[in-house]
Design goal:
The protein contains 9 helices and 6 strands. Helix content is 38%, strand content 16%. The chain has 213 residues and is α/β, with parallel strands linked by helices. A 6-stranded parallel β-sheet has the order 3-2-1-4-5-6, with helices on both faces. The chain has one domain: HUPs (Rossmann fold). It starts with 12 loop residues before the first strand and ends in a 6-residue tail after the last helix. It binds adenosine-5'-triphosphate (ATP) and magnesium ion. Adenosine-5'-triphosphate (ATP) binds next to helix 1, strand 4, helix 4 and helix 8.
């Protein structure tokens, strides 16, 4: 996997990784990643489009190459952002724990890893493969997302899983009720998506006639 090299030998690297379907990537993802980078002093944020997402219907999502290329277009102007092909090149379904293991194989003990998610995704964490190992290995940054309150997160996870709450950092971001689903629906309805995603991504969607029913 060609990724980033540690800053200097012996020096630790603090990485944020953000997994998702990114069909398409949008400003909700980008604002979340940038805010996490600054608040948690991350050296880099790596977006990792999922190959075969275990929770989504394969037939209805765009190809991995489309989702990877749109993610690349979205990050070109940010020197701290990168996109990884790790999961899209995997022949197996993508599980976060496998990705995290792979990062530790590469960077070994020099790595501080933060997994960035929206508050919605973190609510299901106890259903994720080997989630206890995952919580040992990395911390989580859970960004606020309309419809998913932090208090709900604490109520659901707190009493039963106090170890989870300790590893989850809450990140307040400007509320954006925007999702990839919303963008896909707008395209299908012939509505504008201007400013919801970076312009090169918008152009890519039109050029490749994505999301038109
Ligand atoms: P879909 O509607 O297809 O589910 P999505 O917008 O939720 O798409 P994903 O690719 O599923 O995007 O999400 C990747 C990660 O980004 C998840 O952790 C999700 O919670 C987070 N995320 C997506 N949109 C936002 C947003 N507007 N604010 C905060 N986090 C977000
Ligand atoms: Mg989602």
């Amino acid at each position: 996997m060609s990724l980033l090299l540690p800053k200097a030998s012996g020096e630790s690297l603090t990485l944020g990784i953000m997994g998702g379907t990114f069909d398409p990537i949008h400003i909700g993802h980008l604002v979340t990643a940038e805010e996490a980078r600054q608040q948690f002093k991350l050296d880099h944020v790596i977006f990792i489009p999922a190959g075969t997402p275990p929770h989504k219907d394969e037939k209805t999502i765009s190809s991995a190459e489309h989702r990877y290329l749109m993610s690349m277009l979205a990050v070109v102007d940010n020197p701290y952002f990168t996109v990884s092909r790790l999961e899209i090149e995997s022949k197996h379904p993508s599980y976060t724990v496998d990705t995290v293991r792979r990062f530790f194989e590469i960077y070994q003990e020099k790595l501080n890893l933060y997994f960035i998610t929206g508050a919605d995704a973190i609510l299901d964490i106890t259903t994720w493969k080997d989630y206890k190992e995952l919580l040992e290995a990395c911390s989580f940054i859970a960004a606020s997302r309309p419809g998913y309150s932090f208090s709900k997160l604490k109520i659901i996870l707190g009493p039963a899983f106090p170890h989870i709450i300790k590893k989850v950092h809450l990140l307040e971001i400007p509320a954006m009720a925007i999702s990839s689903t919303y963008i896909r629906r707008r395209i299908a309805e012939g509505k504008t998506i201007k400013y919801l995603t970076p312009e090169p991504v918008e152009q890519y969607i039109y050029k490749n006639r994505l999301y038109i029913r």
